[in-house]
Amino acid sequence: xxxxxxxxxxxxxxLVGLGIYMAAMLGIGWYSxxxxxxxxxxxVAGRRLGIPLATGTLFATWFGSGTxxxxxxxxxxxxxxxxxxxxxxxxxxxxxxxxxxxxxxRRGRYLTLVDLFESRYSRTMGVCCLLTTxxxxxxxxxxxxxxxxxxxxxxxGVSLAWGIAISTVLIVTYTFLGGMWSVTLTDAAQLLILxxxxxxxxxxxxxxxxxxxxxxxxxxxxxxxxxxGLEPWAFFPTSEDSSYPAGFLAYTGYMGWFYWLxxxxxxxxxxxxxxxxxxxxFSARDGRTATVSCVLGGTLYLTVGMIPVLxxxxxxxxxxxxxxxxxxNKLLLFMAVDHLPPWLTVIFVSALVAALMSSADxxxxxxxxxLGHNAYRMLRPSASGRETLLVxxxxxxIVAGAALLLALVFEAIYxxxxxxxxxxxxxxxxxxAAAYWWKKANNAGAVSSYVGGxxxxxxxxxxxxxxxxxxxTAPDGAVNMDAAMWDSLYIxxxxxxxASVVLLVAVSLLTQRLCPPKPLRDVEGKEFL
Length: 529
Prior knowledge:
Elements: H1 11-33, H2 39-44, H3 51-62, H4 65-78, H5 84-100, H6 102-107, H7 113-120, H8 123-156, H9 160-209, H10 253-268, H11 275-283, H12 287-318, H13 324-339, H14 342-379, H15 385-410, H16 413-427, H17 429-437, H18 443-471, H19 481-510
Helix pairs in contact: 1-9, 1-14, 3-9, 3-11, 3-12, 3-14, 4-12, 4-13, 4-16, 5-10, 5-12, 7-8, 8-9, 8-14, 8-15, 8-16, 9-12, 9-14, 9-15, 10-19, 11-12, 12-13, 14-15, 16-19, 18-19
């Protein structure tokens, strides 16, 4: 990616502004470290979050580089179809958790989802949840590091790799210091900065494109097609005989509909089993607080999350020649530089960094939590709370190192983010939902669901790959293998979810006598189902 530091005369302003902002965040991390007395304080903020803080951290956790930079880029390239994953699916996830999961999960007083799986099913399922959660959060964190690194590269003139490395060190520092308290307090500040920055750039973009009527044409007014030949606000897969015969993201028929379902399911359902989301549910003051905060967070998320979507569509009208890679990683930066005065550019870039950091620190803490609290206790059952707190803190830079490798290898914000939740969709969602909602679910069914979901997803990836390669082959014979790979991974996730649900039900029913279901218990071993 090309740096703008040599051509943008105010690049140093932006870097100074980011320096001040980062110093403030590190200050909050240092202050938060004084609130940490136990592992419960570090992992779930002592379960003391009220509705304002819980709502803020739920929103800010999910609104990261995938929503801001990746969402704008996908809207530029594919219109509304490109953002079904996020923000549409992500907002759905928060609202579903609020209505169907938050209250009973908070009643269990768990510290991690691994606690739930181990109690309801077995140590085996606890290990499965631990491994999947660690992989998911590292992938999610990698997406945020790419976004943060792109900003440092864009304005600082360093390579993207060095930008990613610098961002990793900064985020590790304040997460290590204050844990969930640090994450929550910084999220509250980042929410305000983020919303203000997005609104400022949206108003500038609307003015540049000539008014709202050019974004939402009235009546039968001609609607400009996006880069892939679709009407920008197309929501469902279009039929082959329609005016825009592109199906869903270039796929028609059954593949188009499965891709559309995957777009909703991957984040909308897969995100439910995410430790970063559930950590906020566990941190709420009580069940009602958790429920209300999730619903409010989802509503706020969709409202603010549509701003990057609008910005992507606006910028396509202004500069339709932007390369795909630049659209996905730098579109908002181009808009800020082109259409905002320098001091507002500083505010907006700080807002982008706020979005990235609020998701990155949450993913880092979530992965570190299951490694320190669960993995270490599995290896050393007699470990004290002081020991697990120390190990959890030590795990923070280890997780960051793994995410850094992912970020350096893939350098793809949106894809890394979506892949992270696909992992939980095909393996953990069904056992999690059944833990409370279906008393006959047993360990045999849960393990079969986990293994079968993964295996089916992997098998169908190879089944679909020839077709996705054909779709991503240009007239001159050049093949976009990256796009073909991601498309097949997403489409195949629907089959993985179907297999996971079917195997959970079938195997549980067939093994009721051999493997009696265990009741749902809280952290003290008391039944509450």
